[in-house]
């Protein structure tokens, strides 16, 4: 075992891992962004898309001039109903979370594949703007013909209701027979004395 750690290749690999771990925990912001979109059908032919972007600073220092831009919603397919597709914050402290949301209304039917939002921020130690991307959204089937969902199937209750009630009554009867009552348990303990 001592001979295994004595080889120069293993020593170099261990040194590289230690140095990379030390630089990975450096004093810099680390931006993670999660983009979500959900569809809401208001009435036939009208559907809204609610978009929210959560931005986390998982690093060890503050990010400045944080800007999120999500301009990848085509104007021939969507209208902005509320909010903006971009937002700016002066700073994002280490471990902090900010959220941005807006709402769109769909004009055309079809599948839409959204792009990730772009987040730019500044680090005081670097002159160039840093860039991060959010997670992409799942494909949206906008204004799709969806059959109405049935919450409860009444036909099954009408067809199998009597069998279910008989089985449940028999099960309850067996449960009452098998489980001892409190009074019989008390009598058994008095007989042992």
From TrEMBL:
It holds the Pfam family TRAP_beta. GO terms for cellular component: endoplasmic reticulum. The keyword Transcription does not apply. Keywords: Membrane, Transmembrane, Transmembrane helix. The chain crosses the membrane at residues 12-33, 156-178. It comes from the Eukaryota. The keyword Zinc-finger does not apply. This is Translocon-associated protein subunit beta. It comes from Corchorus olitorius. The lineage of its organism: Eukaryota, Viridiplantae, Streptophyta, Embryophyta, Tracheophyta.
